[in-house]
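Lab notebook, page 48
Experiment: co-folding of the full assembly
Goal: obtain a model of how the components sit together before planning crosslinking
Operator: M.T.
Materials (sequences as entered):
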Amino acid sequence: MWFASDNTSPAAPEVMAAVLRANQGHAASYGADAAMARVTERLREVFEAPDAAVYLVPTGTAANALALACLCPPWATIYCHRTAHVEEDECGAPEFYTGGAKLTLVDGSHGRIAAEALEAALGFTARAGVHNVQRGALSLTNATEAGTVYTPADVARLSGLARRHGLPVHMDGARFANALAFLGCTPAELTWRAGVDVLSFGGTKNGCMGVEAVILFDPARAWEFELRRKRGGHLFSKHRYLSAQMEGYLGDDLWRTLAGEANARARQLSQGLAALPGARLMHPTEANAVFAAWPRAGHRAARAAGAQYFLWPGHQSLEGAPDDLLSARLVCNWSTTEADVDAFLQTLHTGAPVAVR
Amino acid sequence: MWFASDNTSPAAPEVMAAVLRANQGHAASYGADAAMARVTERLREVFEAPDAAVYLVPTGTAANALALACLCPPWATIYCHRTAHVEEDECGAPEFYTGGAKLTLVDGSHGRIAAEALEAALGFTARAGVHNVQRGALSLTNATEAGTVYTPADVARLSGLARRHGLPVHMDGARFANALAFLGCTPAELTWRAGVDVLSFGGTKNGCMGVEAVILFDPARAWEFELRRKRGGHLFSKHRYLSAQMEGYLGDDLWRTLAGEANARARQLSQGLAALPGARLMHPTEANAVFAAWPRAGHRAARAAGAQYFLWPGHQSLEGAPDDLLSARLVCNWSTTEADVDAFLQTLHTGAPVAVR
Amino acid sequence: MWFASDNTSPAAPEVMAAVLRANQGHAASYGADAAMARVTERLREVFEAPDAAVYLVPTGTAANALALACLCPPWATIYCHRTAHVEEDECGAPEFYTGGAKLTLVDGSHGRIAAEALEAALGFTARAGVHNVQRGALSLTNATEAGTVYTPADVARLSGLARRHGLPVHMDGARFANALAFLGCTPAELTWRAGVDVLSFGGTKNGCMGVEAVILFDPARAWEFELRRKRGGHLFSKHRYLSAQMEGYLGDDLWRTLAGEANARARQLSQGLAALPGARLMHPTEANAVFAAWPRAGHRAARAAGAQYFLWPGHQSLEGAPDDLLSARLVCNWSTTEADVDAFLQTLHTGAPVAVR
Amino acid sequence: MWFASDNTSPAAPEVMAAVLRANQGHAASYGADAAMARVTERLREVFEAPDAAVYLVPTGTAANALALACLCPPWATIYCHRTAHVEEDECGAPEFYTGGAKLTLVDGSHGRIAAEALEAALGFTARAGVHNVQRGALSLTNATEAGTVYTPADVARLSGLARRHGLPVHMDGARFANALAFLGCTPAELTWRAGVDVLSFGGTKNGCMGVEAVILFDPARAWEFELRRKRGGHLFSKHRYLSAQMEGYLGDDLWRTLAGEANARARQLSQGLAALPGARLMHPTEANAVFAAWPRAGHRAARAAGAQYFLWPGHQSLEGAPDDLLSARLVCNWSTTEADVDAFLQTLHTGAPVAVR
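Observation: model returned without errors.
Model output:
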């Protein structure tokens, strides 16, 4: 019962098979491997973006920070949600890679930036003159850190606000596949057609060992990206092992299939929790994470049964809730089984540990 | 006939097997996996350094830059050989990670810093006052970029000079295994016992997919290293795949065995080249790379036969050499076979392409 | 009627006289001038801090950013008020000089950090692990950007909270003299005795041309400060002209006298505004700035009379105020006269421009 | 007998008078003062560059580092002479302001970059790919650190080499006036007409208290410069005191007059030294500094007489010179008198201290 994070999951068999296949004889290094050319071609097709520049890096933090450094000068600020990964979970990587840019935290319910809040932040007059940092870039996380999703219309609206101030738009898509699986739209609709300039396209959390693609829909800053990647220590010499993971991940739309499975398990979990006496959902369950609060007794039973998940801030803000409630984040992944979820729910319902795995 | 770089080689079967074994079920992320604890323990044993802090990163550039950033403040300079990887092949990663430190280039034949040159550089009086950057750290590459090796005595002598100015010492050991295989000494003798504070311990070039260990013999700056690693985007969420590579690499002294094989192939190649009419060795062949010059006809035959290697500066400085000579770098790796080397040498000797692989 | 900023004021005659006296013959450069030794001695006496290290820089931004860079590593955050100069008016200088640290914005009424808000910010659990930036330093502005003042007890309380988390404390004292003039305490009581580690001691706004002292009560990082100052381009070769300004400023307690005069003018202005029909004070007037709102007609008259000041956010938040109110900031300085203030008030009262100067 | 540096000199009376005149009543801050508009206009006339952007900063280090940061990205290198101020005397300010660019040291006799050496450095093939830092900018110092001068033809030749690689050109003109006074050409001929993009135009060493102009002949990066200046803490609030210095300095061509006087004293000194038995000039004396070697006895006498100057590396390389020679740098400035020089020379000739001043 591992619900702590999707990054505790193993890699998918198809991805590992691709890595093993790549381990034959010698191969050109630093991204000149043949597999990388195929990955680029495939991602351009998937995104209907024949001119896009595509690069692989090993972590989501690297993908985000490198992308943002290409979009935002040191003397500017990045608008992001208060709970964005770039703010809360990267130890200042965006500040480091940009050379000291700021992050401006924007509010909005359920992990989504509210348009009015963004408008107010962009309108802050002190950004106009030489005395404060300038407006730099907008960064959207999709799926969000609250397990919700921006629709193409949401993205277009926020991007439009950014565009009015001349700002480029980055999308942190560590869970992009989960967002897409929920929405059923095309990758293009959710990105460049909605105003996104650069996408961090996640693989690690959804079936890979460690690989993320950065897709620059406008390739004008591609060479700058390459230099920043190298300078950041993220250009792999034996690049074929990144390419192979991504190739395996893209093959037969595996990425969409895996994300769909993770989302389905989250829905199952969410529905089960909603039916639990005294429990409340904190956010709508759209992608692969469930945020819910339930009585302490249930938590005790779950812990006793070996369930792994993080308590998460939130229950404090529930109106009219009994003191007994504790909120938690539960993340499903491609390898989570129906039985895992059932066992977890049964534990909560019966208050008794259920042995699994 | 792949002699372009050891990073064109595949991963060793034992390493891949360890990775596959690691791909079972869920595992704790960000370095909290059980395998990482075993790797730390094993490296402490190998280096007879029970207090050392050990971290894994995916590339040699990350290992070097992060290590140096912990040793050298932004307003100081790193003394390194003019041809060091940190100077020539990392697109300024040390400057980036340190926040703008300098590199002071020190000369010395065969890729080794000359003690007198280091002494002169350290003695440069402008380093004393507030007007210039201060003395920061010494970085030694072992094995060197010229395929040669510093002995423990060499390291101790240079470290001693650094120590007199209060400088810490970093060793870029991307090919540390090859140096050790040549010397036959213990890892401790070549590092902390000879005055090395931090070692970048390479795995990638010698049989892994992409993993390097950074070993801080003095753990005082371990937490700083962790923060810098995270901030640089080099903390893997699915860390188990780094741990597994390193565990496979360390098991049964595989790392030493593989390096010994690569070195043996380089010796074979070196001896064959020495016997080639008109050829000259540019540097002693001690580790797994051969630097030699030979007549153009041989190069043409080699290229026609599909041999891969880089022409390398050097022949210009050969005294009394005919204009016809061109120098090259040839790197062997753990998977290079005796037959590969024989075929290559035969091509040079006969001037005719020999079909291999 | 110049109320736009205290930095529109001229330098005091005593300061200019000192500069002229300094302009005799040759003098040692880079801070080795005899006057600098006297300045250090005098500031140590004034602050009862015989071991303090003292440095001069030309701007408040340089003083703050250099001080903070010595206190806060790149991977940490500086706690400051939401309206602090380091956040709003330095174009990211703290981020630049620290190498990419964050600023965490803390709320509190009337420009003063609220203890509970600081406690909550310091307690934010995400600061504990490797994934987010660490707790770095506390920066207090005294007098604040709202024209109010922290008492020694206020400073001690906030410093105490910081100290519990091991954080050092910086005070932005661009208007330190104004705070002291209001409080009547000793410089030591308002700084190191209340837990302040480093003070930016302003001269520019209060009668100098351009000089600020940075006082490190603990001299442990003095050499680091010197290197950072030089590296930032803030070490003056003809340093005597900085020393002379500061010496003139400190002589006969000129700095306290001038600040007392500026504060007195602000009180006069504040009392006059409080008596204006329909006007409201936004903040208590403690130092040399008045924040008030009054009807548009008065603003029109003031503008017509040539009064210079900035409209300032704030009236929006006044409860039950008529739409007609507009808030403004009015800053007095050492050279503001009673007649200036009277003329301004008369203009507002009569609604008719009054010719002055 | 102050020959240690031109920065030990006082400010010229005309400059101080201008500063005093500026100290009347209130004035707009942050560069919006009327005097700055006049300074910009005047420098555009002087340089025949009606579109140039002009900014003032207080130190030469700030001028150089800010200018270079606008020309050279973090992943590139600045080509400069081995003895350039940006390399030897700024504690890494260019590295700091650029965000970690390198400096590539180019040789050449008498402080001037040799064209062949620059060509070789620019041709270094490792600068082409992603693995090393890229070619960034050329920085020329005129007058040089060896007291010599680049002619317009020299500048054009070196700029042309840079231009072939697409590199912009910076000129460190801390002693630009001295170069111009020697050459007798126009400011335009020595700068933009010869391929210079940005000039650091020195005032401090030649009669000001502390002010340098940065002239961007192409104003495209003017706004970036303003943001970098503010972010570096170099935007003066009471900017009028910088403007006034520069206005006084430019008035009646004072800057050229003062430089001419300093150069004349250096010539006088140089000729006197050339006539001293056993003495040798190290470099041609073209600007206001003399580099010469003479017997120890003369140094002893000079020290005894209170003469101030720095011993300077150089005599070691004199062929056939007696061991007894010690080389030194002697810098004249606008306030050096004929009598000062005579007294110094007499001391050397007679071996006896001569009382002066």
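Interpretation: The longest strand of chain A covers residues 134-141.
Next step: discuss with group before ordering constructs.
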